[in-house]
């Protein structure tokens, strides 16, 4: 069951879903019942607040407080699927057996066991600390980023989890974390930094802080992983050391009328970009500089709102005396196109391009006439996943392009290309309802993945779910095509997008051929 | 030609002279002869008197950090007289707390053996605390600090700080200037606040002020002294939450409709309202009074808006809101040319091109609406020109509310009458209602204004400060101009009529557009009657303001 504990999208579509619900086939006297225990110690946890929600809606139907020995019970009259949520002091709001937004729903009805639930509630952890400068004074308004290393969407990578900024005491706090491996990265500027396009570069106030990884390294490779276990309250203090800032002379970067001032960014863990400097200053002699840069590799980019192909980006290793002349990179691509809905447009639609190697995402709002144009920031040549954010019920049927090579739902774009995309949507989404079994018995909490043919190029077609208490699951919004279905008992930490990792599971996978507008039922064995 | 020369003269009088006064602070001296001058001093905490280490001291283009004893030194300087600036996070400069006015002791001179300077930094205030209900700390809720600030003689409530409570309900708002503040806890409701039940008792709390009252009148002001860290815990009273639902009509799918709720303070509630393509909305709110605001964009970027006041004491269903494009408010200008027979003022070369000045006087008129209503949602609208020379302007997409109409005529004109229907907008505010068409705003401008120059004295000696000019006919038209030793405060293009004049040593915080706040001084005011085209000079004795 996809758990929608606090999803914005769910709020928007709630009423449509509610209206489409058919009357309950039968009513009776059922109970959702069980005990709530500490996930680590197994100790019962009386006092935890337990709630049930109707699956796919945000409305809490009933709330009870767990009694002695952690027992809870809800009387329910309507059969169906219910999401069970627990929360308490030190235990953040969480659904039963929750993983990455999926959870096990409790299925209520004749012949369904909904009375022997053991809810292992996970205590939260936190990471907090203080950022100080070289004089041991607090650094205010430092950008503090929390990265998590682990499997998300089947990829084992380092992802930005969240970020915050320090308060007047230099303090930051990340609460409500579950266990895992985390990294803290800080980006800040000395408050007293005095950058200038003129004057000596060795001015003691012409300084900056390099990007700093806990516990003090300025290189991603030197970052100290923070291993967070349930219930941990970890302190990770950082001290920043100012270094001499570099002034990079840049010439002929701005295009008259439509160009914007250049911007320097730096990559964190090779993917997430943070600002390295946006100070673009002109000296009295007419020379222009980007000031306040720390040494090391930066990306400097400029955008052109009128012609995205004039946007540019240079990667260079900043050191004293380095100059950047007119950008040599003319590889920016321009993407525009048309969305064909085959039905009246209702509400807004957004086209999203995700670069496979750059990890960069771009989005364009579709105009009322269906046209769209990506404008502004530099778009590097890359292979892009094409996805669309539009109302449920329609699926991306096909894409065609001039100026790019289409493969599935990706476009491969060469340097400097001018791409015209045609994105065709259709209704005709199908749905699979199924049951996960092991030795003929239903299995709750298994991960189900539906992989399209060539999933690397069709990421937006991947469907996932978690089996509910009676082993059932639902995969919605499936465009026609050939798919591979897998059920993994302990699949949540497997980077299944990696073909080598997935290979041993494929012999026991099921092939599913999906036609338009169908509802399928399947049984699948867990591995 | 005479009208142009008068315009130029008026520009020079009205704009350049006060500007010159404001920037009459000593400028950098002529080119340095020798660069062997120095400047030294100490930065101290204004409250404790202790030295402040690592404060940034800047003098012209030179900057340095103070050492461990708060000392700074500049050497090899040219001979310069210029303001010195001092700053450090956690502190305000003397200029900051004086509302941007540069204190005279901050203008310093480098010398061969100068006396050390003492510069003060005023430590910031901090308000911190915890938001709790009977059920425990409340996380993720908004608290806002409101402060009354006097700008241009009028009191404005402004949001001065903002925080979101942490997982233990705590908040902290730093960087506060000395002054008094009200702490507002924004209305909230969330599943986390709900109590057990079938269906569960959905709870929330309405907007309240420290220490936990609904009404501003009952709220306790937090008086923050320099360097003070003030604890202010708020208790939120959990109360049932009611459902509000209905339908918005009169829009197309691309109108980008939003439905929001604003409280009495103008705070727009942060929690979500469900909204679907058919215009159905549903939200859950704690009891209280709200304005339901539906907004969208119609054809030609016209604002689609409808506001509906709600008093919520139970569930409210079936609300119908019909959106309509807001009606433009026309503004008609009428110029009454009462030209002076001969020009007695010299033409000043002010750098403006005669061509620009020769353009229609209508092109220089600015009309602005400023909301007088809720604190946290200040609104401003500017009248747009249909064409540069036209004597017709239009205010578009004005949201419902009460507004003060400000007319800035430019050149040597003054607004002699500003009316909308029966309302005299020189005295009263303009009310704009949702879905109602407003009559045009009729502005009459005349160019027979009087000019007044005022010098101020204290015990017979010229003195510096501010001169207040209070038109007897409309207190809202009060204005203030600075006066310094040996220069005059200058008021230009004044409507003929009777005025009161007062000179003060300082006017920071003085609500001079509110006559009652001047009552203790009015007995010492000087009355003047100004006639058409009159140029008049007068002298005033300075009134020392009680702090």
Gist of the model:
The complex is a heterodimer of chains A (527) and B (547). Chain A is built from 2 helices and 44 strands.
Radius of gyration of chain A: 27 Å
Uncertain ranges of chain A: 4-25
Tell me roughly what share of residues is in helical segments of chain A.
Answer: under 10%
Average of per-residue pLDDT values of chain B? 84
Given this structure, which CATH class of the largest domain in chain A is correct?
A: Mainly Beta
Query: What's the CATH topology name of the largest domain in chain A?
Result: Immunoglobulin-like
How many strands of chain A?
A: 44
Number of helices of chain B: 4
Shape of chain B: globular
- Shape of chain A, please? globular
Q: Please report the total strand number of chain B as a whole number.
A: 46
Percent strand of chain A equals over 45%
How is the topology of this model organized?
The complex is a heterodimer of chains A (527) and B (547).
Chain A: H1 8-20, E1 30-38, E2 49-54, E3 60-65, E4 71-76, E5 80-88, E6 91-95, E7 106-108, E8 117-121, E9 125-132, E10 143-152, E11 155-165, E12 171-177, E13 180-187, E14 207-208, E15 212-213, E16 226-228, E17 233-235, E18 238-239, E19 243-244, E20 246-250, E21 263-268, E22 272-277, E23 280-282, E24 288-293, E25 296-302, E26 312-318, E27 323-324, E28 334-340, E29 350-355, E30 361-365, E31 371-373, E32 383-389, E33 395-402, E34 405-407, E35 410-412, E36 418-426, E37 430-438, E38 441-442, E39 447-452, E40 463-466, E41 472-478, E42 481-488, H2 499-502, E43 510-514, E44 519-525
Parallel strand pairs in A: 1-8, 9-17, 9-18, 20-27, 28-36, 37-44
Antiparallel strand pairs in A: 1-4, 2-3, 2-5, 5-6, 5-7, 9-12, 10-11, 10-13, 13-15, 13-16, 14-19, 20-24, 21-22, 21-25, 23-24, 25-26, 28-31, 29-30, 29-32, 32-35, 33-36, 34-35, 37-38, 37-41, 39-40, 39-42, 42-43
Chain B: H1 2-22, E1 37-45, E2 56-59, E3 62-65, E4 71-77, E5 81-87, E6 91-93, H2 94-97, E7 107-109, E8 117-123, E9 125-133, E10 136-137, E11 142-151, E12 154-164, E13 170-176, E14 179-185, E15 188-189, E16 203-205, E17 208-209, E18 222-224, E19 229-231, E20 234-235, E21 239-249, E22 258-262, E23 274-275, E24 280-286, E25 288-297, E26 303-312, E27 316-322, E28 324-325, E29 329-336, H3 354-358, E30 366-371, E31 380-382, E32 384-385, E33 392-395, E34 401-408, E35 414-420, E36 423-424, E37 430-432, E38 441-446, E39 450-458, E40 461-462, E41 465-471, E42 479-483, E43 489-494, E44 497-504, H4 519-522, E45 526-530, E46 535-543
Parallel strand pairs in B: 1-8, 9-19, 9-20, 21-27, 29-38, 39-46, 44-46
Antiparallel strand pairs in B: 1-4, 2-3, 2-5, 5-7, 6-8, 9-10, 9-13, 11-12, 11-14, 14-17, 14-18, 15-16, 16-21, 21-24, 22-25, 23-24, 25-26, 26-28, 29-33, 30-31, 30-34, 32-33, 34-37, 35-36, 35-38, 39-40, 39-43, 41-42, 41-44, 44-45
